[in-house]
């Protein structure tokens, strides 16, 4: 990966945290080949951004987060032989 591949919003968020305030060191650690804390935090924040895009995010990010199978409402009923019965 290169610097251009890094998400600017995620970098900004990480840079605002006190433990990642040195931006040059942060970018260096993210581009490093070894596993490290910076990469873990970066990818967790990126995953969160992709799952819960803000209004300012690009349309392609918002469309990627829409679930093809959204969560369904929980129903407190037990199925016996294909027929629902109320749980006791």
From TrEMBL:
Any idea where the BRSK1/2-like UBA domain is? 7-49
Pfam family of the protein (one): UBA_BRSK
In its UniProt entry, what is this protein called? non-specific serine/threonine protein kinase
What keywords would UniProt list here?
Answer: Kinase, Magnesium, Metal-binding, Serine/threonine-protein kinase, Transferase
Which Enzyme Commission numbers does its entry carry?
2.7.11.1
KW tRNA-binding (keyword) present? no
The record's top EC class is transferase
InterPro entries recorded: BRSK1_2-like_UBA
As its record notes, the protein acts as a catalyst of:
L-threonyl-[protein] + ATP = O-phospho-L-threonyl-[protein] + ADP + H(+); L-seryl-[protein] + ATP = O-phospho-L-seryl-[protein] + ADP + H(+)
Q: Does the keyword RNA-binding apply?
A: no
Q: Which CDD domains match?
A: UBA_BRSK
Family (UniProt): Belongs to the protein kinase superfamily. CAMK Ser/Thr protein kinase family. SNF1 subfamily.
Cofactor requirements of the protein: Mg(2+)
Disordered: annotated segments: 59-88
> Bias category Basic and acidic residues: which stretches?
60-76
Name the Gene Ontology molecular function terms of this record: metal ion binding; protein serine/threonine kinase activity
């Amino acid at each position: 990966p290169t610097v251009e591949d890094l998400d600017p919003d995620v970098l900004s968020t990480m840079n605002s945290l006190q433990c990642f305030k040195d931006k040059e060191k942060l970018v260096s650690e993210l581009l490093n080949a070894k596993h490290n804390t910076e990469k873990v935090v970066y990818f967790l924040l990126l995953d969160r951004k992709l799952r819960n895009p803000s209004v300012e995010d690009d349309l392609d990010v918002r469309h990627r987060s829409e679930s093809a199978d959204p969560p369904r409402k929980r129903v407190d009923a037990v199925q016996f032989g294909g027929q629902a019965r109320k749980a006791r």
